[in-house]
Amino acid sequence: MVKAIQVKGLQKSFKKLRVLKGVDFEVRKGSIYALLGSNGAGKTTVIKILATLLTPDRGNVQVCGFDVVRQPERVREKISLTGQFAAVDEILTGRENLIMIAKLRHLKNPHQVADDLIRRFGLTDAVDRRVSTYSGGMRRRLDIAMSLIGKPQLIFLDEPTTGLDPEARMEVWKIVKELAKDGTTVLLTTQYLEEAEQLADRIAILHEGRIIVSGTLEELKKLFPPAKVEYVEKQPTLEEIFLAVIGKKEGR
Amino acid sequence: MEAVKKHFFSDMGVMLGRSMRHITRSMDTIITVTIMPTAFMLLFVYVFGGAIKTGTDNYVNYLLPGILLIAIATGISYTAYRLFMDMQGGIFERFHSMPIAPSAALWGHVLTSLVSNTISVAIIILVALIMGFRSSAGVLSWLAVAGILALFTLALTWIAAIAGLSAKSVDGASAFSYPLIFLPFISSAFVPTESMPGPVRAFAENQPVTSIVDAIRALLSGQPVENDIRVALAWCLGILIVAYLFAIRVYKRKAA
After folding, report:
1. Any CB–CB contact under 8 A between B84 and chain A?
2. pLDDT tens digits, B6-50
3. pLDDT in tens, B89-110
């Protein structure tokens, strides 16, 4: 199997704080891999190292077949990063943001690329407004759209749905699923178990600087005590009520 | 690596286009940058000017160089602000994870500073012309003035870059410019240094603003400039190089 990401013995400290204490994992090409962990577990540090923004202290990190330390330029050609804070320019319009990134990717027809993404991501109504007027969900959609420019093989999504309302979260989920269908590898981090369950082919749990378990959802479920059959009256969750009330219950 | 170098200038162009849009979208930056120095100019010419003895009959002519420096010092605080906002948001991370030269983003801001300060300097010169500023300088002298002002802008812009890159808060990012704005007051910009008491005069005569102001003033009035211009250029270049090296170091540490 071809690997999109290979990480062996990755360590990283910030001054005296040891954030990553030896992380190992592999991500298969074309899959969705979820890195699950609580705040401060080191998820963002892993992403930043993979995206060549930070250099590892120790360990071997290969992204799309290139070493992140020795060949960062080659890695950058293959990847796209959607960071924890929407990496969009607030003062520019949505369209201008897309065109800017297309130009920086040195594509031949940036306007055409922008138009295609605008249609695909349903941004048509808002695209000529400044991004500062966008809702969180729209901003995130634009953010991901910007990451798709230049057809990267691998996309990092660092907590893509943190701070989004349930509706917007489902939109992002839909986009991520479509990406994987097109053959793009996705590495996403999340604090929501449900998100990993919904999206990921494989899940790894990062805890105190190490990956403590990894596998498919089925494999992870086997690690825990077998399911017991109990009869529990199922109350609708507040989220289900919310979605039912606003009439958007599809998608689950 | 080759591809990154090949596209450096076009990438920088995109970055310049981006931050120029920031300026044209919020005209208040240009307005605040020009309004305060213009207000100083009006205040000093029409209120205090009558009491100031400079040995020239046209106080606007005397005052203009210092006002231009104040305008530039105000202008570059916005560069620090914009740079700080970029560092805070995710946009720099996106740029740095793309196959473009990391310094392209920084140079985009520096060039924007040059362009926007040129605009505000031009506006202030227009106001000065309305207020009676006249110059006997020829094309070459004007070019020399433009050169000095551009060097001064670049030098201060790189100081602003250090502030913008290393600041912990928005206020910190722009606060560094206050002493720079204040510096022309303790120089030959408003009054001749001869009228100042000993220690103040010593400071005023040996700080960069005085030599820069004197050089520009001499150029604009068609006087010989020999030593002033050399000292002025040395100050500008010296500050420029030191600030540049320091800013690049901070940038590499923060961005890598």
Report:
1. no
2. 788 888 899 999 988 888 887 777 788 888 889 988 888 888 877
3. 778 888 888 888 888 888 899 9
**φ, ψ of residue A228 in degrees (nearest 5):** -100, 150
Determine the pLDDT at residue A97: 93
The total domain count for chain A is 1
Kindly give, in sequence order, each residue whose CB lies less than 8 Å from that of residue A169, ignoring residues fewer than 6 positions away.
Answer: A161, A195
For residue A80, the enclosing domain spans 3-245
Residue A250 in domain:
no
- Reference B22, options B111, B144, B98; nearest CA is B111
Residues A134-142, mean pLDDT to the nearest whole number: 87
Q: Where are the domains of chain B?
A: 2-255
Distance (Å) from the alpha carbon of B96 to chain A's nearest alpha carbon: 7
**Closest of B232, B236, B196 to residue B214, by C-alpha:** B232
Residue A149 contacts residue A107 (beta carbons within 8 Å): yes
Nearest-angstrom CA–CA distance, B128 and B130: 5
Question: Token digits for A21?
Answer: 């204490």
- Evaluate if pTM is beyond 0.80: yes
Interface of B with A in 13-42 (CB under 8 A): 14, 17-18, 21-22, 25-26
Task: Collect all residues of chain B within an 8 Å Cβ-Cβ radius of residue A90.
Answer: 89
User: Is A250 a residue whose pLDDT tops 70?
Assistant: no
Chain center to CA of B255: 25
Indicate which CATH number applies to the domain containing A126. Answer: 3.40.50.300
CA-wise closest residue to B149 among B68, B220, B50: B68
A85 contacts on B by Cβ (under 8 Å): 89-90
User: Rg (Cα) of chain A, in Å, rounded?
Assistant: 19
Chain B residues in contact with A68 (beta carbon < 8 A): none
What pLDDT is stored for residue A98 in this prediction?
94
Note whether residue A251 is domain-resident. no
Q: Which residues of B touch A158 (CB under 8 A)?
A: none
Which ipTM score applies to this complex? 0.82
Cβ within 8 Å, pair A87-B18: no
Closest Cβ opposite residue A88 in set B21, B22, B91: B91
